[in-house]
Amino acid sequence: MQPGNITSPVLHSTLAPLLQQFLAEKRAQGHRYDSLALVLRTFDRYLQEQNVVDANLPRALVETWVGKRPQESTNTQANRFYLTCQVCRFLERQGYAPFIPPFTWRPKVDRQFTPYIFSEDEVYRLFDCLDHVHSHPRAPQRARIVPLVFRLLYGCGLRINEVLHLRVQDVDSPQAILTIREAKLQKDRLIPVAPSLAVRLRNYTDTVVGHRAPDAFFFQAPDGGAWCSQVFYGLFRAALQQCGIAHKGHGHGPRVHDLRHTFACHRLAHWLREGVAVDLALPILATYMGHESVYETQRYLHLFPQLYPEITGKLTAYCGTVIPTVEVLNEAY
Q1: Does 262 lie in the same domain as 172?
Q2: Are 213 and 198 contacting, i.e. CB atoms less than 8 angstroms apart?
Q3: pLDDT tens digits, one per residue of 139-188
Q4: Are 133 and 203 in the same domain?
Q5: Are residues 48 and 79 in the same domain?
Q6: Fewest CB atoms within 10 Å of the CB: 95, 105, 297, 329?
Q7: Is residue 252 part of a domain?
Q8: Number of domains in the chain
């Protein structure tokens, strides 16, 4: 979804004005609330079906709504549960008395954090394959675009849609700074680019972008719009197979998004080898990656015992038990 293109569901129940007010409040706080807006629309439809006429939602109605559906994933139920809690607390602040589902009702969601972290050799082999992607008659610039897109994913730790929705005005090639607009929580951030990657950006700007309009897409698809991320997923899978990196199937990775995780781990490891204190490194990395808090960045540290045993010893000696376990992190979230 393109940044700025926010889903606004059409609601019809008696409580629709209150639900719209709730949604506006969430977005005013910086939350996009796109997928949950669709859950809100389903909740609105449920209220219509139950002929609800006031906001004092009774326990039986709420309990039925948040209950597990047949053949439903736990994540889907969890989204409905957390949305319901937020809506009911909002209604309570408006002076109503809805039943608020207790915390003990929350679905048990598996939040195990297991991204695939590429080794430096695997990154080298992957880019070697991506550098040999051919152009296509309907996409003559594809061979120039693909290697640079993937280098931005790994070299800057960006999300795929953050790269694909860059505009010409967002790329300051001379200063080697990217502007990421309306990312997570609708926050903008500035991304300094490493010198070697900056050279590639300048070459691409000079030879491909030229005098394109400031609001045009920097990586322009053949139709003039933004590229679809699925195109890059397909190229990524083909490159993995070509360079001998096993793929474990849909949902198991390696995923394109794992290049962002790899950037974070490689950058932390580099700093720690240089002697940078972890309490200084984590806030810098959190800001660069656009994380909401340093705790989100701290999740990468639990991967270090397997990836960098030589660093883990130094880290533990310096910081004690700073490396959290997966179980502790999951409880925090």
Answers
A1: no
A2: no
A3: 899 999 999 999 999 999 999 999 999 999 999 999 999 999 876 656 78
A4: yes
A5: yes
A6: 95
A7: no
A8: 3
67 and 135 inside one domain: no
Distance CA 316, CA 322 (A): 7
Of 80, 105, 130, which residue sits at a domain end?
Answer: 105
In a domain, 253, yes or no: no
Active site (catalytic) residues = 159, 184, 252, 260, 291, 300
Q: Where are the alpha helices (DSSP H) in the chain?
A: 16-28, 34-49, 59-66, 74-93, 120-130, 142-156, 160-164, 195-204, 229-242, 258-273, 278-289, 294-298, 304-307, 309-319, 326-332
Cα(100)–Cα(52) distance, integer angstroms = 16
Q: 268 and 281 in contact (C-beta within 8 Å)? A: yes
The answer to whether position 10 is within a domain reads no
Whether residue 276 is contained in a domain is answered as yes
Domain with 179 in it: what CATH number?
1.10.443.10
Non-local (6+) Cβ contacts of 226 within 8 A are: 2, 164, 165, 217, 219, 220
| Closest-CA residue to 179 (of 195, 155, 163) | 163
Token reading at 156:
């800057």
Which pairs from 160-165 meet CB under 8 Å and 24+ separation? Answer: 160/229, 160/232, 160/256, 160/257, 161/1, 161/2, 161/3, 161/229, 163/219, 164/217, 164/219, 164/226, 164/227, 164/229, 164/232, 165/2, 165/3, 165/217, 165/226
Name the pTM for this structure. 0.68
- Of 146, 115, 141, nearest in space to 128 by CA: 146
Which domain covers residue 303, as residue numbers?
Answer: 258-332
